Amino acid sequence: MSECLVFIERARRAEKAFKILWKNGLYEDALSRGYYAIIHLCFAILIKNDLAIPKTHAGLIAKLWQCRKDLKLDEKTIKSISRIQSLRESSDYGVVPTITEDDLKVVEEVIRNLKEVLGC
Fold it and tell me: Mind listing the pLDDT tens digit for each residue in 58-111?
């Protein structure tokens, strides 16, 4: 299996967990799994376009922004990924739960957009 397909499969499993956790009201955990589905889809997009995977998540967002036109990613999607990254950090390390249903809807939309870019 190619490296691109490995990341797509990992994204599929993370998305499945995202949906199960969301359905069961576990918003912080759902956001985390949704975020990793997004990360794996982004890695697949970079690999598909013969680009290296950055070493950090902040580096990933910077690379997506820098290459957005070639990768066919819109600004809103990349800004949403950046916001989701921040939400994931607060939900994983913060004391007070802060994730809302609307936040999870944004995660779902970003996953859908990235899958469209990949054609899957």
Answer: 999 999 999 999 999 999 999 999 999 999 998 888 777 789 999 999 999 999
Q: Give which of 49, 42, 52 is closest to 114, Cα–Cα.
A: 42
CA distance 70 to 63: 11
**pTM for the full model?**
0.94
Other CB atoms within 10 Å distance of the CB of residue 36: 18
Residue with tokens 């990992």: 10
Closest CA to 80 of 59, 101, 96, 65: 65
- Give ∠ CA 27-87-61 in degrees, rounded to 5: 130
pLDDT at 118 over 90: yes
HEC profile of 37-49: HHHHHHHHHHHHC
For residue 60 the two structure tokens come to: 């990933």
Which residues, including other chains, have CB under 8 Å from residue 117's CB and lie 6 or more apart?
Answer: 45, 71, 72, 73
